[in-house]
Amino acid sequence: MLIHHLRVLPLLVRMHVRSQMEYRGAFWLDRLAQILSYGSVFATIGILLARFDTLGGWTWPELALLFSFQLLAYSLGAAMSFVQLRDLEELVRLGTFDTLLVKPFSPWAYLVFSGLNIGYTGHVILAVALMGWAVLSIDFAWSVWSASFLIAALISATLLTAALITMIGATALIWVRSNHLFSIFFGFWELTRYPLNIFPGGIQTILITAVPLALTSSVPVGALLGKPIPILGDWAGPVSLVAGPIWVLMAIAHWRYATGKYQGAGG
């Protein structure tokens, strides 16, 4: 069964990518709009830095690394989860999720890989280019260890992002409605473009525990650069590396619990 799944997944991805690329001009124009949109957000941060020199003790290249890390982790994680799990509410409401349950295939795997969102290409292009500039511009002595930590932390942040989105989407299997939770998610996600230490203690605690999105941005980047991390302190680095795998296990458990509680559109 596992080998069957592994053979089918590339086919699902290829079919979806072909459908997304049917109108290539429109696709790349949309990606350009994404780049300009997020570029303007970073430009706003630049205006703040031009006025105040630093933000929470972070310089312009350090904030560029933070912004690019946050955007890249989100785009990679969301490509595997956001649109697919956001649409799960509609599948549940209409009763069409039932058709996935009778397929000889994992409903989660089918949802994720048949809807792999290559629309995040613009996010990735901007994030990688900005991260490359930040790495070259930042006043930091890079080593094999620090580069390895950056990559491992990025993988963990990607997993954490996908896990949180999966847990939000899976809640629709219990409540039918869950998309309002995404508004809360993105409300906190917007805050993680900035250093954690500029926020009040209550928000810092939420961003590390209940909605741990700081672990996808300023916590791992701050730990890499040797910045003081509120609450976590010297544990910031290790916590950043294990957060992704731990939340993936929690997401798996939540998905299984939610599918076990699912009773169909009729309740």
Automatic annotation (TrEMBL):
<keyword id="KW-1133">Transmembrane helix</keyword>
<dbReference type="Pfam" id="PF06182">
    <property type="entry name" value="ABC2_membrane_6"/>
</dbReference>
<protein>
    <submittedName>
        <fullName>ABC-2 family transporter protein</fullName>
    </submittedName>
</protein>
<keyword id="KW-0472">Membrane</keyword>
<keyword id="KW-0812">Transmembrane</keyword>
<feature type="transmembrane region" description="Helical">
    <location>
        <begin position="235"/>
        <end position="253"/>
    </location>
</feature>
<feature type="transmembrane region" description="Helical">
    <location>
        <begin position="108"/>
        <end position="136"/>
    </location>
</feature>
<feature type="transmembrane region" description="Helical">
    <location>
        <begin position="64"/>
        <end position="83"/>
    </location>
</feature>
<feature type="transmembrane region" description="Helical">
    <location>
        <begin position="196"/>
        <end position="215"/>
    </location>
</feature>
<feature type="transmembrane region" description="Helical">
    <location>
        <begin position="142"/>
        <end position="175"/>
    </location>
</feature>
<feature type="transmembrane region" description="Helical">
    <location>
        <begin position="32"/>
        <end position="52"/>
    </location>
</feature>
<dbReference type="InterPro" id="IPR010390">
    <property type="entry name" value="ABC-2_transporter-like"/>
</dbReference>
